[in-house]
Fold this protein.
Amino acid sequence: MSKYWSKLAASLEPYVPGEQPKDRKYIKLNTNENPYPPSPRVTEAIRKAANESLKLYPDPNGDELRTTIATYYGLKKEQVFFGNGSDEVLAFSFMAFFDPDRPILFPDVTYSFYPVYAELFKISYKLINLNDDFTLPIEQFFRENGGIIFPNPNAPTGNVISLEEIEEILLHNQDQIVIIDEAYIDFGGESAVKLIDKYSNLLIIQTLSKSRCLAGLRVGLALGREELIKALDTIKNSINSYTLDRLALIGAAEAFRDDQYFQTSREKIIITREKVIGELRKIGFKVIPSKSNFVFISHPSVTAGEIYQELKEKSILVRYFKKPRIDNYLRVSIGSNEEMDVFLETVKRIVSQRT
Amino acid sequence: MSKYWSKLAASLEPYVPGEQPKDRKYIKLNTNENPYPPSPRVTEAIRKAANESLKLYPDPNGDELRTTIATYYGLKKEQVFFGNGSDEVLAFSFMAFFDPDRPILFPDVTYSFYPVYAELFKISYKLINLNDDFTLPIEQFFRENGGIIFPNPNAPTGNVISLEEIEEILLHNQDQIVIIDEAYIDFGGESAVKLIDKYSNLLIIQTLSKSRCLAGLRVGLALGREELIKALDTIKNSINSYTLDRLALIGAAEAFRDDQYFQTSREKIIITREKVIGELRKIGFKVIPSKSNFVFISHPSVTAGEIYQELKEKSILVRYFKKPRIDNYLRVSIGSNEEMDVFLETVKRIVSQRT
């Protein structure tokens, strides 16, 4: 830090993404990436677009991508926003919908970027404590607030709530925005997209990084009523006219067009997940019910810290959050069947040596 | 606007980028894009990178790109930051270095995104009035301030200041940061990069959108002392861990490696610019001396508004800012020789019809 830093920069504690050590090859089960490649149609479309046109700015409004996503979800183009990963969309949403003087609500165990955004934009917040089994006590959202945000499924627990519960939250908060972060929705939860026509206070945020195998392309999106999307555009156009490059715009649109590929690859993840959950329970792990592409697990006799460390030594990376309430849990992304077989065998050995 | 908008969103007047009408094909001289394609090595590298690896997150730190840029400029990797276009880098810089209660300084005629960032981040500012010939009265920066930012060459005028003048500004502001926005530096100005070792208060921002023919890839960068770069990383890591996708990271690095292509294409622009300036002066235009890839022009007897409109009808787009002091000027990007011939012929006809 130097005297040139703003007070803001000096006050921040940034988000720390999952580690990416470069010392050797790891089985990476720590950042919820998809083990399957993106649709071949996506990579082919990008290769074709890598041409002379890169000298020109992208369409600042990204009409083609907006229209493609709108068509996919049965919405209007004006109900779609996109950004540089769902993280950018989340950051813009904090600016577009939350005010510093009205505390927002989000769960105590949740995506750890929310408190970082709150600090950055000076938005005060109150934490909703999850139940002991990590389920969401939705009635805790029925109180005075300046806006609500939570992931569904929740991260890093994988727990999901139903559309009926979401409607209850929306109905109890008609004067506040309710932002549902659906980063992991395609792995078994039910999307709230169908509620957009019914609720003007609902904003949904999604990403192409998980279920569409495109973490490396950096595309996230928001869906909601036109008036909400306009607020996001106002923020975006006050920061950066063109947040997606030409290649990401084209690749993202093609990902939505190849629905068959999407359906097949997300189903593969779900099948592997269910198998992994069964195997983990057999060797004594507590596994939080998951509708996402990861499992959140804890062992009664071997600590999460030990398992994390031993797995890392065996070249398997999982995510270990040293945080209150979850410091004896590990978040394990669902990789390919082959990767998960290696993981299961290794973790079985670790656990049996210690018990 | 709806009741769900934050006070911030409701208060903003976003930046408006150059128009991109889709009704027909235009000669686009309105957004300072480069008429030449990017280096073939860049497009080839991107095509190769459009593969299975897109399922994985990019390197959040972008070490390879940082190292490549550092090597190019004779700096250390820790002295390089990059972002999603220089606009994002500028936005992050406003957050990283400016405080709301200490007014910053920038010229009254300058890049119109600066006041937008100031509004967004609640940074107060004082305008430095350019001289009548649009040159920068540098002694106006020798006063109490919370930081300084200006483009060199300035936009939309094209005027440049010398390294000696920059050093004077730096010396008079040793307790404040001085940010030099070098978006157009490669077209004839002298970069302040060589001053980084000498001044701890100097931050330089550049872009690959102009001189490196990559407006469609969205890559900007900042160069400065390690402590300044750390502040930018702190902001970035509080918003979005990965601001460049895998393709942009690889394409940008290759653009710096192919220096010969870069040198050739920027020289072509400079030669065309000088020719265009000569021709415009012949038909009575006042042309501000330009060291950028655009010219800022005014005609004594035909208004800028009229010329803009007639050019547009003839399928030529130039930029017309309806703003105080410059509402009788047009900013014309330097296109290819062929494009500029059409522009010159058309503008000659417009002017001769009216005089």
